[in-house]
């Protein structure tokens, strides 16, 4: 009974306990054990043509291991943004401590002007990939925007034979004329993909990403980070632009993961901030100007 031992229980008390469990079930996956862990991180210019790539790979891997220590197991799913190409991802999982794990790669080149894409790493011991594709963002005339595609992966959870869809996003930045309308198009595309997946019978969907707008946690997600904190800091002000606005078929908790490895003192303002890799052309020795998020997810059926 999963480590629960019952010695002597009065029958009326047992009946009452059963009724309570039926009315107020604890959230668990179908195996009754640990949650599905999903991590997302904008890894800031994770490119093969910039210097210090080995140090960056080692730092990203160390952060994933730290998240594993913090949350009781390595992330089952790891969404990444600002990835330059598949070779960077191969280097990450082959030349760092992650080579001892079983991560596999989902990645497509996108039409982004900077040459950065979204990617997904998934654990082969937990998932089998069923399908994947890049989903372009288009304008009202059907023209493909020169921005990051939404990465869609459909997987089978081998622990319970459940099909889930994962959408990794990096929506257009706030720079340039018409940036808000481009983000509106990207969010509309995401919501349309969600609706299409539901129409095909997929009931478990999680969308994560950097949305370059404040992200309100999806219904069913409990906020589990200090008040006033965010994932990105600009001129002393926190904003929560990384997160999970779309969640179907799950309940759980959302964390901002901010270990000391990723932080530095905010010299111009109070407190700490993410320690970025680059400040213009100058290498600053950090890993990213964003903190990652971690979702502890439990299957839930309405």
Topology of this structure?
Layout: H1 11-23, E1 36-46, H2 53-71, E2 77-83, H3 86-94, E3 103-107, E4 117-123, E5 127-135, E6 150-157, E7 162-170, H4 179-199, E8 204-210, E9 221-223, E10 232-234, E11 237-239, E12 242-248, E13 250-256, E14 263-265, E15 272-274, E16 278-279, E17 282-283, E18 293-299
Parallel strand pairs: 1-2, 7-8, 9-13
Antiparallel strand pairs: 1-18, 2-4, 3-4, 5-6, 6-7, 8-12, 10-11, 13-18, 14-15, 16-17
Helix pairs in contact: 2-3
CATH topology: Deoxyribonuclease I, Chain A
Which of globular, elongated, flat, extended, rod-shaped describes the shape? globular
Strand content: 25-35%
Integer tally of domains: 1
Overall CATH architecture: 4-Layer Sandwich
Mean pLDDT: 89
Sheet of most strands: 7 strands, mixed
Overview of the structural elements:
This protein is an alpha+beta fold. It has a single domain (36-299), classed as Deoxyribonuclease I, Chain A (4-Layer Sandwich). It is 21% helix and 34% strand. It contains four helices and 18 strands. It has helices at residues 11-23, 53-71, 86-94, 179-199, and strands at residues 36-46, 77-83, 103-107, 117-123, 127-135, 150-157, 162-170, 204-210, 221-223, 232-234, 237-239, 242-248, 250-256, 263-265, 272-274, 278-279, 282-283, 293-299. The strands form five sheets. The chain has a seven-stranded mixed β-sheet with strand order 3-4-2-1-18-13-9, with helices on one face. The chain has a five-stranded mixed β-sheet with strand order 5-6-7-8-12, with helices on one face. A two-stranded antiparallel sheet has the order 10-11. Helix 2 packs across helix 3. The longest helix has 21 residues, at 179-199. It starts with 10 loop residues before the first helix and ends with a strand.
């Amino acid at each position: 009974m999963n480590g629960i031992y019952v010695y002597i229980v009065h029958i009326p008390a047992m009946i009452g306990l059963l009724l309570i469990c039926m009315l107020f079930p604890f959230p668990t996956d179908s195996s009754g054990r640990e949650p599905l862990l999903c991590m997302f991180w904008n890894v800031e210019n994770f490119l093969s043509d910039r210097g210090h790539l080995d140090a960056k790979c080692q730092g990203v891997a160390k952060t994933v291991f730290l998240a594993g220590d913090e949350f009781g197991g390595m992330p089952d799913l790891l969404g990444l943004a600002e990835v330059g190409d598949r070779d960077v991802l191969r280097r990450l999982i082959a030349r760092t401590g992650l080579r001892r794990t079983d991560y596999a790669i989902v990645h497509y080149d996108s039409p982004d002007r900077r040459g950065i894409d979204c990617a997904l790493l998934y654990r082969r011991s937990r998932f089998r990939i069923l399908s994947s594709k890049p989903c372009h963002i288009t304008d009202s005339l059907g023209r493909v925007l020169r921005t990051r595609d939404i990465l869609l992966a459909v997987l089978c959870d081998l622990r319970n034979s459940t099909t889930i869809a994962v959408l990794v996003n990096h929506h257009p930045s706030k720079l340039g004329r018409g940036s808000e309308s481009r983000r509106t198009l990207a969010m509309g595309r995401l919501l349309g993909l969600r609706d299409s997946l539901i129409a095909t019978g997929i009931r478990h969907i999680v969308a994560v990403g950097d949305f370059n707008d404040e992200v309100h946690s999806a219904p069913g997600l409990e906020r589990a980070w200090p008040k006033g904190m965010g994932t990105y800091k600009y001129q002393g002000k926190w904003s929560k632009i990384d997160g999970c606005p779309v969640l179907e078929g799950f309940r759980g908790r959302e964390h901002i993961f901010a270990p000391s490895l990723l932080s530095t003192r905010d010299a111009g303002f109070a407190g700490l901030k993410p320690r970025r890799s680059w400040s213009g052309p100058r290498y600053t020795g950090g890993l990213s100007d964003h903190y990652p998020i971690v979702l502890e997810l439990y299957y839930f059926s309405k």
